[in-house]
Design a protein that fits this description.
Distance between the termini: 8 Å
CATH superfamily: GntR ligand-binding domain-like
Shape: globular
Strand content: under 5%
Largest sheet: none
Number of domains: 1
Order of helices and strands: HHHHHHH
Radius of gyration: 15 Å
Number of helices: 7
């Protein structure tokens, strides 16, 4: 992986954080506050729990991808949803590259983020989202280094 590719990952992470945080603040919390958020994200977290307990790597990747997809969908932000839709396949692929990460830790991060979302605490959810992205950055870079061509 080239230095330029490595440098683009933090800026992508920062951009994703800002987009998700903005989406969370404006998109998720209104339906949460009005009791219209539904339980889909909680159901996805429950599925991730079952997959993690079963140590089913494919089901874990699927549930983790679905967690990110549902978080994005909850924003109701059509631009964010349209922008992220083609990236979800890449996210699942990236999860396969970083399969050596502890799925219990990833599950725990998703639980705390889900709890922050449903408690309508956008500052906490934004901070947790940023920490979650940052926590995965180094393993992602390591996984990508072996597959991306040097430019």
């Amino acid at each position: 992986m080239t230095t330029a590719q490595q440098e683009s990952v933090p800026s992508m992470a920062q951009s994703a954080y800002l987009a998700v945080r903005e989406g969370i603040i404006h998109g998720i919390y209104k339906p949460v506050a009005e009791g219209r958020a539904g339980d889909t994200l909680r159901e996805v977290v429950a599925e991730a729990y079952r997959a993690t307990l079963a140590e089913d790597a494919d089901a874990i990747r699927q549930a983790n991808t679905q967690f990110h997809a549902e978080t994005i969908a909850m924003t109701g932000n059509s631009l964010l949803i349209a922008t992220m839709a083609p990236l979800l396949g890449r996210i699942r692929w990236l999860f396969a590259l970083t399969a050596d990460r502890d799925p219990h830790v990833e599950y725990g991060e998703h639980v705390t983020l889900c709890d922050a979302i449903y408690s309508a605490n956008p500052d906490l959810a934004g901070a947790l989202a940023f920490a979650h992205i940052e926590h995965g950055r180094a393993p992602s870079l390591a996984g990508l280094a072996g597959v991306l061509p040097a430019v």
